[in-house]
Amino acid sequence: MKVLVVGANGQIGKQLTSYIQASDHLTAKAMIRKQEQASFFEDLGAETVLVDLEDRVESIAKVATDVDAIVFTAGSGPKTGKDKTLMIDLDGAIKTIEAAEKAGVKRFIMISSFDTTREAILAANESFAPYVVAKYYADVWLRNTDLDYTIIHPGILTNDGATGKITAAERVDRGEITRDDVARVILACLEKDATIGKEFQIVGGNTPINEAIDAL
């Protein structure tokens, strides 16, 4: 299976690409925005493509024609303004979904925010609310497609080392999870067709990742 990793240069994207390249049955195609980002992925033996998420749908679709799955891990980041949240976390996500449809790629994994319910939007502070709104509508858009989607809602992200263990369910108590463990969860979802059509929250826990995903 060939996987287009959108947002590959992010921390989760880099870890996911590393895991995919270490697999004996998956290969990664890293979608990056700048040529200087390519060396990390080339050292892994991964193919790279230069596409800006603020470009047209057709630009994304063109690089997706030869892949079997797309993982959307892109994000505008906490230091950008509402404009970039709109352009990347909402419009970029929806354009990637539309690109998957144009390219005939059925499998789509979305990395969302921990809670994208209406209640979460109302509870969010002024600076965080636009991000939750963007993720809310991107999730809604994906649910309304015929794609074989999985939506993953990770808790508070940390840069600690992987534990290999999580808590996963439709609703879990808010908590932390390492970016490395999120990448491992994505890998498990790529390998498990039973996750198609499922949406769940993940935080650190005591259950091995594969076991937790199998129990969903």
From TrEMBL:
Domain NAD(P)-binding: 7-192
InterPro entries reported for this sequence: NAD(P)-bd_dom, NAD(P)-bd_dom_sf
The species this protein was found in: Amphibacillus indicireducens
Signal peptide: none
Protein name, per record: SDR family oxidoreductase
Pfam family, one: NAD_binding_10
